[in-house]
Write a sequence for this structure.
């Protein structure tokens, strides 16, 4: 199964205005700058379907992209962006949190975590909260190209332990090396078919 077509549909800050077509939604969530939008571009084989930046805080709205005319990828703003910046926290407590907890067609989420860091409170809290919302979560450790293979494996083992998850719930990934693209697509497709 491949991603054959991908197109931008709509951006908004009100979950009630998200597409109401009944198609399944698969959202990407994680700290700002972790690589959510880059991952979406890699999955969809596009250069700039989702807007990316080296500066955190690039994605500001809930963005729906329709895939193969049959399901949605949803790119979200990141959390943890400039702790003193109230607007990021406000966004989370208003529209992003509501989208995740209230959206009727969302039940699958990829949570991205930078593989170079030790487990951060914000990531652990986010994971726990996603489970509370009843969402099925796939963990993606991003920027694996920044570590050696053995260091990446050690980080994966650490996150598996800390999050209490199994091998099929976590994957290491690099959008610069295309590693594990096929495996990640097949895991996502299994959930949306
Ligand atoms: P926000 O929209 O601000 O929440 O960020 P985001 O999570 O969407 O991150 P984005 O995809 O915009 O990427 C942030 C930066 O990380 C960009 O400079 C990307 O080129 C870089 N980046 C993303 N993925 C990878 C990766 O796997 N490896 C490396 N080395 N850099 C990456
Ligand atoms: Mg983004």
């Amino acid at each position: 199964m491949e991603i054959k077509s991908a197109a931008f549909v709509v951006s908004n800050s009100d979950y009630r205005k998200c597409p109401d077509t009944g198609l399944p939604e698969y959202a990407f969530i994680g700290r700002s700058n972790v690589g959510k939008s880059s991952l979406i571009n890699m999955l969809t084989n596009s250069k700039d379907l989702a807007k990316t930046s080296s500066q955190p805080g690039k994605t500001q709205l809930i963005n729906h992209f329709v895939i193969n005319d049959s399901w949605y990828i949803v790119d979200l703003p990141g959390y943890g962006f400039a702790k003193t910046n109230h607007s990021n926290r406000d966004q989370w407590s208003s529209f992003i949190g509501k989208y995740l907890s209230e959206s009727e067609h969302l039940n699958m989420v990829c949570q991205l975590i930078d593989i170079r860091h030790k487990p951060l409170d914000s990531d652990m809290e986010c994971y726990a909260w996603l489970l509370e919302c009843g969402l099925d979560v796939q963990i993606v450790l991003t920027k694996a190209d920044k570590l050696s293979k053995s260091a990446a494996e050690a980080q994966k083992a650490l996150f598996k332990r800390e999050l209490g998850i199994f091998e099929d719930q976590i994957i290491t990934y690099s959008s610069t090396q295309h590693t594990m693209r096929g495996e990640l697509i097949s895991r996502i497709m299994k959930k949306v078919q």
Remarks:
- The chain has a mean pLDDT of 91.
